[in-house]
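Per your request, structure below.
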């Protein structure tokens, strides 16, 4: 009996230990403070906010990468790094991963997105079959036989020959079944695409117009174990700048100011080089033994001046529709487990959705037919956001409509204007206005946690996306049906503002709408609207 108890207890410990190792992005780690919050907390003493546009443009063969200056007080306080990518038709944003999680919003266009999650199976299969040329197979066979004959011990040679035969047999089976890879999916305007740190993603524009996206990195996230700088690690390509140009820029930075040097170093970390460039040819040839020297050189990006957005030639990807993707996922589960079951790691990560569209009026969380709508994507409707602690909100305001005032309880937010123009006011903790100006398309305004913000659309309306560094960011409106004033007793409001209870009641119940308010109308405007409706 005691032996059974000891065995059961040991098994429990093993399960708990494995679960902790298999879930590195588990939300339980959010009890840890975000990296850098304690070290850079003093940088949140913000006196003035700025609606900014990209400060640097990096051109590639088939697109442009635009980077915001993230050395401003509000960006460093929030730990945000903002990048906009423009991919021309036929362009391919090369595979890369980052040391910090990020969230991407597709502003314009359509394309194909690929995601590579470490440890997940290749559940997608292309429809085309391929075979290696006979000459290449014969060359590999002769090379393999030559290597085998050079071995000193006969037993090792025999074992190696058997291994090569199994490898060629497996290669033949794979070639007859076509190419297999991890999931790919269609993206379009309004999609939100998250990514944990270290997960590889790539994007192909197979449409007729430019594919434009805005990406927000969270450098203070617990998944970033480095410093406050965001680094992108590319698996292919090379910067268009030559080594001589980089050496010249490095000398210029040494002669320039510290701020300019820091900005250039941070931007260089975002778009620097292919990580395979640093490995020696002999190592790569030993690892990728079936490729020639020319391919090894291309792996290392030697003499590649295309940048990190390249023109893809004859790239045709079969992207499954949503129902086909579910079917493919089910087939993969049955292939792995026989009964359709998968292990905990695959259930936690491999089968999660990597996109959610926030531009559908039918899925609005808040809707006012005379003012606008709000669509929210968080960990409730896109579970992967729970692991990276990010979320997004898309807001559409009609002509002269108003949003707010409101504040974020538990997150910083970056407002990126996608259409129209309008006026924004932000008030900080000292009761002073830290921003009061118009914003327009292409600008970003960072609003720190707790700062109250109100937005009013112009004549053409106003649309923006808010990217936030919490997977379930909560806002608290000051006016409206769900506001904080609505929840306070009338007598408390009357004493707080030194007004009559009648005025306090009007203050509390003046707006029956939720967050999005229709514009004020004079009597004449109401009459004109009533006449036009009739």
């Amino acid at each position: 009996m005691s032996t059974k108890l000891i065995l059961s207890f040991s098994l429990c410990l093993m399960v708990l230990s494995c679960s902790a190792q298999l879930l590195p992005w588990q939300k339980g780690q959010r009890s840890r403070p975000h990296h850098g919050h304690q070290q850079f907390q003093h940088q949140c003493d913000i006196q003035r906010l700025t609606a900014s546009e990209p400060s640097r443009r990096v051109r590639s063969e088939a697109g442009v990468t635009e980077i915001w200056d993230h050395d401003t007080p509000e960006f460093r306080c929030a730990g945000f790094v903002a990048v906009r990518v423009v991919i021309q038709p036929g362009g391919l944003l090369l595979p890369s991963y980052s040391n910090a999680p990020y969230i991407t919003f597709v502003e314009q266009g359509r394309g194909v997105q690929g995601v590579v999650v470490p440890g997940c199976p290749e559940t997608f299969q292309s429809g085309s079959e391929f075979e290696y040329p006979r000459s290449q197979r014969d060359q590999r066979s002769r090379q393999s036989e030559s290597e085998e004959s050079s071995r000193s011990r006969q037993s090792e040679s025999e074992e190696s020959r058997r291994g090569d035969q199994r490898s060629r047999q497996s290669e033949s089976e794979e070639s007859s079944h076509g190419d297999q890879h991890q999931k790919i999916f269609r993206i379009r305007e309004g999609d939100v695409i998250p990514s944990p740190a270290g997960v590889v993603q790539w994007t192909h524009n197979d449409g007729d117009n430019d594919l434009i996206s805005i990406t927000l990195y969270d450098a203070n996230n617990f998944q970033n174990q480095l410093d406050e700088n965001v680094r992108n690690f590319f698996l292919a390509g090379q910067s268009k700048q030559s080594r001589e140009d980089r050496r010249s820029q490095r000398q210029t930075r040494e002669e320039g100011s510290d701020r300019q040097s820091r900005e250039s170093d941070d931007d260089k970390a975002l778009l620097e080089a292919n990580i395979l460039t640093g490995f020696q040819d002999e190592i790569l040839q030993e690892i990728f033994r079936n490729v020639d020297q020319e391919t090894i050189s291309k792996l290392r990006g030697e003499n590649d001046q295309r940048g990190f957005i390249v023109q893809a030639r004859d790239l045709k990807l079969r992207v499954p529709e949503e129902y086909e993707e579910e079917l493919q996922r089910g087939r993969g589960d049955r292939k792995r487990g026989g009964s359709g079951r998968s292990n905990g790691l695959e259930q936690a990560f491999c089968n999660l959705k990597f996109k959610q569209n926030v531009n559908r009026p039918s899925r609005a969380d808040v809707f006012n037919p005379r003012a606008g709508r709000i669509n929210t994507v968080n960990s409730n409707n896109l579970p992967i956001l729970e692991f990276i602690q990010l979320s997004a909100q898309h807001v559409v305001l009609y002509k002269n409509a108003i949003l707010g005032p409101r504040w974020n309880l538990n997150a910083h937010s970056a407002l990126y204007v996608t259409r129209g123009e309008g006026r924004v006011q932000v008030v900080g903790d000292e009761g002073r206005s830290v921003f009061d100006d118009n914003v327009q398309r292409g600008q970003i305004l960072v609003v720190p946690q707790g700062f109250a913000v109100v937005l009013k659309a112009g004549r053409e309306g106003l649309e923006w996306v808010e990217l936030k560094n919490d997977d379930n960011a909560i806002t608290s409106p000051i006016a409206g049906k769900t506001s904080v004033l609505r929840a306070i007793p009338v007598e408390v409001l009357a004493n707080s503002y030194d007004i009559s209870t009648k005025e306090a009641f009007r203050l509390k119940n003046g707006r029956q709408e939720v967050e999005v308010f229709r514009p004020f109308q004079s009597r004449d405007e109401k009459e004109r609207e009533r006449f036009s409706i009739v």
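Residues 154-177 form the longest helix (24 residues).

Regards,
D.
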